[in-house]
Design goal:
- Two copies of one chain form a homodimer.
- Chain A has 582 residues and is of the alpha/beta class.
- Chain A has three domains: 244 residues, Thiamin diphosphate (ThDP)-binding fold, Pyr/PP domains (Rossmann fold), CATH 3.40.50.970; 158 residues, Thiamin diphosphate (ThDP)-binding fold, Pyr/PP domains (Rossmann fold, 3-Layer(aba) Sandwich); 125 residues, 3-Layer(aba) Sandwich (Rossmann fold), CATH 3.40.50.
- Chain A is 38% helix and 16% strand.
- Chains A, B: This is 1-deoxy-D-xylulose-5-phosphate synthase.
Chain lengths: 582, 582
């Protein structure tokens, strides 16, 4: 076996083409085996095995610097840079993360998980090299899907101005997560069908030299084309036509379905998605019903349609009432604002980690104009994705402090639906709704009208202690109430519903009969909801415990550990409350 | 005079070409006169007088919808849509804002002030039109400079996919605020020199049809080309070569200097910039000295170099150590992260209102990677720009809640320099510095090391009342202390220095001898600094008054009025404190 012996890129350079091809086969087998056990990005990694081998064969990492976009195609790179064991031995699977990671290797330059950033980050390395009068090649690897993000354009445009070594490898597998969207993709297709000769060349229009390779999974051709641009003194794009999912027939045939997979059976291709309800499917059913019942409804997503259960059949069924804008969150929000202004009922949804990509558009394009679009922030909270680059715990500080934006936090599916019904049909406010990761159900009756902004709901009125549980942490507040009851305390239980403001009248009234307030939220404390409550009660005698997560970039920390560490477990909260009361 | 009689676009349509040319001359005279009295965007407006006339001659606003990018070229549009009086009579100059404004007219669809948004907003209107089965043309007007922003790319890319009426007018005056930067501009120049025939056509590569007009200030030609695209059923770019500053010789010759001007003398061209120190020049001198003394320093700006006093001579002097990335804040931050990773010392500066455009890059590209770049957030606070779209009051909630980022708030020029010296040379943290609008000086001795994070400085230790004044509001806290002294209170005065965290040890210690804490910050309260203090003191008996601005999109409200309204005046604060003490 060759792969076992690859300790660094130097070992790759020592092999002949035939051995490199054997190496590729071994890497693919190892990839599939690990992915089938652990889950992960299947199709993107399978498509770039040969590209990665050729890069390390031709260039001299880490002196030559390779920056991967999103880095969910960087598993092969990890295998060839001293980390093969983490793909060969099950007991070492956990040694590496799913993204590039500087703490793992000098061959990784940035921790990356959001798209469209590689060109700018790599251009920074290239510019530092030039300013410090160093040498070496700088290579940004970017998938065709990531080209739809504005940051990638900004980076390419800036890079196109410099007469210096800067190599952009476009890994064109004809797919984003789902199909690509954007006029650009028509011209990329033209470039593919004309072997790179089409007049419509986006990269040339931004000042790049340009080379095309149709055989993007052929190692010898890849080596040849990379050699031809090595030490280039001009910015150059190497456009590779690769095959997403290559070498695993199921993934070759269903590239979207195999972009990311939970653990699966290699033979049968059966993916173990786990059981139980999830918000993807709940949203899919809900939004499709809205589309069917109201021709004004337009659902927008930015390239991750599974987040709202919009798989292919549903996308087709939705017709013009569903828009995938590509990986273009900024545009998505501005588009939603324009749709609302034009009389439609836009609903834009993205994950809590990606809503970060469009702060200014939320503020300027949407909220300063006070247009009534609905924004669904999905997978919110610390119990969802837990890679540093995919944390969904910063959305409350970001969204709840933008004027005009109403940020609603439902406690359960039923409340989500009443809130969304209101948000979509009202015409007074831009409204965001925090869709949790975990599915809860409650049998309460929820009000249908949320236009009295920041009106908290007192679910149970007790005394001395008031527990305010935001969104999916309402359940946690209720659990604290149970703990306190055992201590003889009949605590007040509040569902605040709004993260974007506080019910000051209620708080001041409660402060007359309550000594301690506790806020609980599933996100970072700083800049968040509880701090607003603490501030509103600042000039009273009440004591306020603000509970949530401390402001940190957590990496792969389990939700249970996070709760323990941040004193979020009901027994911990109850104990802290009892101490304050004593 | 024709202009006086233009009450709506219908009156424009009734004129012949010769009269339209007279109208253009009258508009230009009115523009210059108003701008010379009030200041404003001079050159952009002078260049698009004819374009605006032709748009209203050919299209039927508001049924046909025109969306202006940045909208600092929309003054002519205002003149032709019932608002001429606001440009003809000095007593009515204040009737209209400097940007498009839906509350002023049904011909304005969005309040706009940040760049690169028109395509996305207009595409929303076009999509709403199609979904609702309405008709009419939708036109986005965008300057060449604004094309460098990622949001504009995302919008164009998405629009290029649709087979529907969507017209993008590119107002190419060969300039951003300063010269353009980006490879794209080389191909725009090629299009100009080849009368639109160059192969490198960015717009075609995104799926647009394309038309070019060299005579972009000739009304008859403009009318002809607009007629040729009216009711187009495909997305089409109309590329106009216009002259920035046209008709005012000084502005024609110095287009950057006349992009925006304070009131000026039309005859002599003398601009009354006002006197006194400003941070633009302070930063220019400071940064240039850094560049000269350290070859690793790289100063980055995104197209508004006047903000750091980098006028042409200074840009030339800085050579490769100064990078203007175009209007591309996202790329700027990622580039800075890459530069820092590569061993350079990047300093990126942008205004407080524009830092909003790059939240995700600050979080992911920079802070998750913990690279030691320095970010200068200029013109911060409510005492600077006061258009809704240019408020610099939201940066504390945005920046202070991102993990790893150290957000420093200097109280004066001297402290700014010690903080910047530290930030640039240290290698542990990404550091942002809040550069105020107003220039203060203090003669204190400032520590040179800020690596003990969140360590507040007690400037005077008193008792009962602790006044914590952040950044330029430290002066205000000192003024409150004077007021309280008259009441017999010897208040403690604290310069917190850090907006991104609190000195909890100090606060808890002070809480033993202080009954009331007051925080003062020049920005919105929600999500900001004071709320962190209130939270830190939440389980003590101390009372906390958090003072700053309420969360609103203020429009043209004077700083004095804002302070009054938000109880920020020292006498108001002192009175509120005395009431709490009683």
């Amino acid at each position: 076996m060759l792969l076992e012996k690859i300790k660094s890129p130097a070992d790759v350079k020592a092999l002949d083409i035939k051995s490199l091809e054997q190496l590729a086969a071994e890497m693919r087998t190892a990839l599939l085996k690990k992915l089938s056990k652990r889950g992960g990005h299947v199709a993107p990694n399978l498509g770039f095995v040969e590209g990665t081998i050729a890069l390390h064969y031709v260039f001299d990492s880490p002196r030559d610097k390779i920056v991967y976009d999103v880095s969910h195609q960087s598993y092969s790179h990890k295998m060839l840079t001293g980390r093969a064991q983490a793909f060969l031995e099950e007991s070492h699977y956990g040694d590496v993360t799913g993204y590039s990671e500087p703490t793992e290797s000098e061959h990784d330059f940035f921790m990356v998980g959001h798209t469209s950033t590689s060109v700018s980050l790599a251009l920074g390395l290239a510019t530092a090299r030039d300013v410090l009068r160093e040498s070496g090649n700088v290579i940004a690897v970017i998938g065709d899907g990531s080209l739809s993000g504005g940051e990638a354009f900004e980076g390419l445009d800036n890079a196109g101005e410099y007469a210096t070594n800067f190599i952009v490898v476009v890994n064109d597998n004809e797919m984003s997560i789902a199909e690509n969207h954007g006029g650009l993709y028509k011209s990329l297709a033209e470039l593919r069908t004309t072997a790179g000769k089409s007049e419509n060349n986006y990269f040339k229009s931004l000042g790049f030299d340009y080379k095309y390779l149709e055989q993007g999974n052929d190692i010898a051709s890849l080596i040849e084309i990379f050699k031809s641009v090595k030490n280039s003194t001009r910015p150059v794009v190497v456009h590779l036509h690769t095959q997403k999912g290559r070498g695993y027939s199921y993934a070759e045939q269903n590239r979207e379905g195999w972009h990311w997979a939970a653990p699966f059976n290699i033979e049968t291709s059966e993916i173990n998605w786990g059981s139980g309800e999830n918000y993807g499917e709940i949203l899919g059913l809900y939004l499709m019903a809205k589309i069917k019942s109201d021709p004004k409804v337009v659902v927008i997503h930015s390239a991750v349609p599974a987040g709202i259960g919009f798989y292919e059949a549903r996308r087709k069924e939705a017709g013009k009432q569903y828009i995938d804008v590509g990986i273009a969150e900024e545009h998505a929000v501005a588009l939603a604002s324009g749709l609302a202004k034009g009389g439609a009922k836009p609903i834009y949804s993205t994950h809590g980690t990606f809503i970060q990509r469009t702060y200014d558009q939320l503020s300027q394009d949407l909220c300063a104009n006070n247009n009534p679009a609905t924004i669904l922030v999905t997978m919110s909270g610390a119990d969802g994705m837990n890679d540093t680059t995919h944390l969904c715990i910063f959305d409350i500080p970001m969204l709840s402090n933008i004027p005009n934006l109403v940020y609603l936090c439902p406690t359960c599916v039923e409340e989500f639906k009443t809130m969304a019904d209101w948000a979509i049909d009202q015409t007074e406010h831009p409204v965001a709704i925090r869709v949790p990761n975990a599915v809860h159900h409650r049998s309460d009756i929820f009000e249908k009208d949320y236009s009295r902004l920041n009106k908290f709901k007192v679910v149970h009125r007790g005394e001395r202690v008031a527990l305010i549980g935001l969104g999916d942490f309402y359940q946690r507040a209720a659990a604290v109430a149970l703990e306190l009851r055992r201590e003889g305390i009949d605590a007040t239980l509040v569902n605040p519903r709004y993260a974007s403001g506080v019910d000051k009248d209620l708080l001041l009234e409660l402060a007359k009969t309550h000594d301690v307030f506790v806020t609980l939220e599933n996100g970072v404390i700083e800049g968040g909801f509880g701090q607003k409550v603490a501030t509103a009660l600042g000039d009273t005698c009440a004591k306020v415990l603000v509970r949530g997560l401390s402001k940190e970039f957590y990496d792969k920390v389990s939700f249970a550990d996070l709760c323990e560490k941040n004193h979020l477990n009901p027994s911990q909260v109850a104990k802290d409350v009892m101490q304050l009361l004593s």
